[in-house]
Amino acid sequence: AQSVSQHNHHVILSEAASLELGCNYSYGGTVNLFWYVQYPGQHLQLLLKYFSGDPLVKGIKGFEAEFIKSKFSFNLRKPSVQWSDTAEYFCAVNAAGNTGKLIFGQGTTLQVKP
Amino acid sequence: DAMVIQNPRYQVTQFGKPVTLSCSQTLNHNVMYWYQQKSSQAPKLLFHYYDKDFNNEADTPDNFQSRRPNTSFCFLDIRSPGLGDAAMYLCATSTIRTGSEKLFFGSGTQLSVL
Q1: Could you report the per-residue pLDDT of B18-59, keeping only the tens digit for each?
Q2: Hey, are the CB atoms on A94 and B106 less than 8 Å from each other?
Q3: Is the peptide bond before A114 cis (omega within 30 degrees of 0)?
Q4: Among residues A110, A113, A109, which one has the least CA distance to residue A15?
Q5: Which pLDDT score, from 0 to 100, does residue B97 have?
Q6: Which of A5, A96, B89, B98 has the most other CB atoms within 10 Å of its CB?
Q7: Residue A41's Cα: distance from chain center in Å?
Q8: Residues of B in contact with A29 (CB under 8 A)
Q9: Considering CB atoms only, which of B42, B98, B107 is closest to A105?
Q10: Which residue of A has its CA nearest to B49?
């Protein structure tokens, strides 16, 4: 069965610090990978996704993620975080060609101190 | 403008009393999903509709049912809520279900069971 593991449950950073959130998945076949973000009081929204091509994916608000197939990883990065990045971040995976069923990780709460 | 709308935002019900959560969308998407998210856990897919075709996840309890009377609306019925059903319920939509498309989420309904 597919599963997604996010390494950090709660991360606290100061503004301008660099961010890396870990995500590993277990599935042997071709996958589509996503990062969703949920800002306080708002709905989940897509941050970025990978389904083919360049393994380094750029998303909104300066976020990027790198797909490393050999490590089954899809870590999220941002060189310099802002207070407005405070949110919960979810990594998700979908087996390519599947019925749109996303398997989510348990989420990482990011708190950025001004 | 909200594209996936869930009502109500908070719902309180009594143990064993049937409850219905609603979701509507203005996107005209073919696929609608219901996810359950318990505190500090990953969102978990309960079922989804592809047009009128209902797809239940194998581990979704029989207590949970769904209806989709038309493209725009989808309902989640919990026939006899237990204390363990207290959770955030998320509705999402997507255009098709190849696996690479993004999901559009509603703000969720937080269900409490007394």
Answers
A1: 999 999 999 999 999 999 999 888 899 999 999 999 999 989
A2: no
A3: no
A4: A113
A5: 60
A6: B89
A7: 19
A8: none
A9: B42
A10: A99
